[in-house]
Design brief:
mainly alpha; 421 residues
Length: 421
């Protein structure tokens, strides 16, 4: 899962002779397609969880463990391979990630138990952790001088893959083998991308390059002056911005984790359907709304408290949709949650990366993403435990209200002016 703006580096002069690019636009499109397909495969499972619960004989806690095994391995991969993606040949990394993800996705089709399923999901997470930064770096090199385009193309490919995964999974499951066809189809699609990359991307043109990291979004605020940064990330303004970004990411991805794990079963009960395409579409509403919102070049200090307030209101709507059995409230709340999350995270992330000293940029971004992805795993496991004890409907209501209160409290904290050092 990756539904956030991705920082990219501007192309830097090569240390050796400059090599001409070959078919840069075609390769950029192929790179974006690769990232999109990888993330579709990782989120294909969402509408299948209700069926998997019955087939593999596990409950809500098993669903959250199956989902979180991917997220936790993704976090480990991001931490362990963060520098590897900057030093290894980009073609090698992408081809290896495609091969491992294809194997993991195919293994999901024949999983005999929950343990097998979790290991296959973990393989997907590690591979996608390696591929995400590498794909973004490849786009940067192939589209030099167009940082904003690279940022938005990366966002569309990654967030679009996350949002489309549940929809595609639901559609592909309408076959005679609903638990095999989606996974095998995506495994074949991933495998087909390997020769395409090998044929279009010469190995010598995919060598890594280095350069300072900048924000590739047009709405990024101006960098804080050196005199105001002083101690880098430890300066009061930068530390506050980092804490707000990490907390915002954690809470907003808590909502994403719910949408991609237990939401299908919960939403199916509210809408009164067992149609997997419909369930996948409902689960994708929040993710798609967030991705589209983050493409808008919004500005202003109002964004973070407004986004968190909208997210809190949406969560209260989701909490009420179950007891009221209201599909309309469910859909409107899911869309509002995506808009609120997109506004809040865009504002918090760009403010934090603009405030930090350049020497601490990479570690700051890594820390924000680590905390953010933990938000989509740990609270969702707690929700699984809660659902086992209270039932899914009541568990979701308690979970949504608690998360809404936390979002409102964080929004109030964001309104307070930072103290002058």
């Amino acid at each position: 899962m990756s539904a956030t703006p991705t920082p990219v580096r501007p192309a830097s002069p090569a240390t050796g002779p400059t090599l001409p690019q070959v078919r840069p636009r075609a390769r950029a499109a192929l790179t974006a397609l690769t990232l999109f397909t990888l993330l579709v495969s990782a989120n294909l499972t969402t509408p299948l969880f209700p069926l998997l619960e019955r087939t593999l004989d596990f409950g809500p806690l098993g669903t959250t463990l199956a989902f979180s095994s991917y997220v936790l391995s993704l976090i480990v991969g991001l931490l362990v391979f963060r520098r590897f993606a900057d030093t290894a040949n980009r073609r090698t990394v992408l081809v290896s990630a495609l091969a491992l993800t294809a194997l993991g996705t195919a293994a999901l089709a024949v999983a005999p138990n929950l343990g097998w399923f979790c290991v296959a999901r973990a393989a997907q997470g590690v591979a996608i952790a390696c591929a995400t930064g590498t794909a973004s770096g490849a786009l940067r090199v192939l589209l030099p001088g167009r940082a904003a385009l690279v940022g938005r193309l990366t966002l569309l490919a990654s967030s679009g893959g996350v949002a489309c995964g549940p929809i595609i999974g639901g559609l592909l499951s309408q076959s005679a083998a609903p638990l095999m066809t989606p996974f095998l189809t995506l495994a074949l699609a991933l495998a087909a991308l390997i020769p395409a990359i090998l044929l279009t991307a010469p190995h010598e043109l995919c060598r890594p390059d280095t350069g300072p990291v900048t924000i590739a979004l047009a709405d990024a605020p101006p960098r804080v002056a050196r005199s105001e940064r002083r101690a880098g990330r430890q300066s009061p303004a930068a530390l506050r911005a980092f804490r707000l970004a990490a907390a915002t990411g954690f809470l907003s991805f808590t909502v994403f984790g719910f949408c991609l794990s237990l939401a299908p079963s919960h939403f199916a009960g509210i809408v009164g359907t067992d149609s997997r395409p419909a369930i996948g579409l409902l689960a994708a509403l929040t993710l798609g709304a967030s991705a589209l919102t983050q493409l808008a070049p919004l500005r202003g200090a109002w964004r973070l408290p407004l986004g968190l307030g909208a997210l809190a209101l949406a969560l209260l709507g989701l909490a009420a949709a179950g007891p009221l059995a209201s599909p309309g409230l469910l859909v409107s709340s899911a869309l509002l949650a995506g808009v609120g999350q997109g506004i809040a995270f865009q504002a918090a992330f760009t403010a934090a990366t603009a405030a930090v000293d350049p020497r601490h940029h990479a570690s700051t971004v890594s820390a924000i993403y680590t905390v953010t992805y933990l938000g989509s795993a740990l609270p969702v496991i707690g929700l699984g435990l809660l659902a086992e004890r209270l039932g899914l409907g009541l568990g979701v209501t308690v979970f949504a209200i608690a998360t809404a209160v936390a979002c409102a409290a964080l929004g109030a904290a964001a309104l307070r002016r930072p103290e002058r050092a």
